[in-house]
Write a structure and sequence with these properties.
This protein has 7 helices and 14 strands. The chain has about 270 residues and is an alpha/beta fold. The protein folds into 2 domains: about 160 residues, Rossmann fold; about 90 residues, Elongation Factor Tu (Ef-tu), domain 3, CATH 2.40.30. It has a 7-stranded mixed sheet with strand order 2-1-3-5-4-6-7, with helices on both faces. A 7-stranded mixed sheet has the order 8-9-13-12-11-10-14. Strand 12 and strand 13 form a beta hairpin. It is elongated, with a radius of gyration of 20 Å.
Length: about 270
């Protein structure tokens, strides 16, 4: 079965790095492998992990039957000292309980949103130094092998909960092109259990405080109102979103970075 390859990386669409990575992958893959690329902001491992979780954990009918995801967002912050020979974070391979294959640089929260769905986690023999552009020079070989079900690149089996941090709590998890902010408040969170449809609450992000309406859906509020409601991400345990009908919730809170803490105050 031909695998569908989804690449998530922190290169701006259309720039040279994006073009070179795409070309390097196409050089290694057979022509029948569909390839799609999704961008996140530079060094944003929270958004990277959020996207990995959303794409890989989709139910049957919402993802390809055979899916491989490659995530490359490598801030190289695991070591604070000067690096030798452009050494970077290691490349990990995970097989998930639903059969999806995920290969990702072991950085920040890139694999946090799938940590509990991992069946097996392995280190790989991908070169960790020798190039400042490993996603072009080294990683395509590993991905091409995985797509062909050649797992000879696996080295050591790892314990996911010892290697991967848990997903960040109560923060902005992803900002979409409409300015909606997907949060990591998830169904089952004790704060959400206290909320009632139509209730007015205070939300603090950074130094900005705004009033919002708890809503059952995107169109349950007036035009221009800020709302907090269950979103479209998270599958069987949905993440809640902040949105402004007819506007941008992100701009309403002065354009905060993904990963910024969110505080919810029931007293309005």
């Amino acid at each position: 079965m031909t695998s569908y390859l989804h690449v998530i990386c922190d290169y701006a669409p259309g720039d040279l790095a994006w073009a070179e990575v795409y070309s390097a992958f196409k050089a290694k893959l057979t022509e029948d492998v569909p390839l799609h690329m999704t961008a996140v902001n530079s060094f944003d491992t929270v958004s990277t992990g959020f996207i990995v979780g959303q794409l890989s954990c989709a139910t049957t009918g919402l993802k390809p039957d055979s899916l491989t995801i490659f995530a490359n967002c490598a801030p190289r912050k695991d070591v604070k000292e000067a690096r030798q020979d452009n050494e970077g974070e290691g490349l990990l391979y995970a097989s998930l309980k639903n059969g999806v294959h995920v290969i990702a640089v072991n950085s920040g929260y890139s694999m946090s949103f799938i940590r509990d769905e991992i069946l097996e986690l392995w280190s790989t023999d991908a070169e960790e130094f020798g190039s400042q552009f490993r996603s072009r020079d080294f990683f395509p070989r590993i991905i091409a092998q995985a797509v062909k079900s050649d797992f000879s690149f696996l080295v050591h089996k790892l314990e996911p909960h010892k290697v991967i941090p848990e997903e960040p709590k109560e923060v902005i998890g992803y900002k979409d092109s409409f300015g909606n902010m997907k949060t990591t408040y998830r169904e089952g969170h004790p704060v959400l259990a206290e909320l009632k449809d139509g209730q007015r609450i205070k939300i603090t992000i950074g130094s900005i405080i705004r009033a919002a309406t708890v809503a059952a859906g995107s169109f349950n509020v007036m035009e221009g109102d800020l709302a907090f409601a269950p979103g479209s991400s998270g599958h069987d345990r949905r993440f809640w979103e902040l949105f402004k009908r007819g506007g941008s919730a992100w701009e309403e809170f002065a354009c905060p970075a993904v990963g910024t803490k969110i505080k919810i105050d029931m007293t309005y």
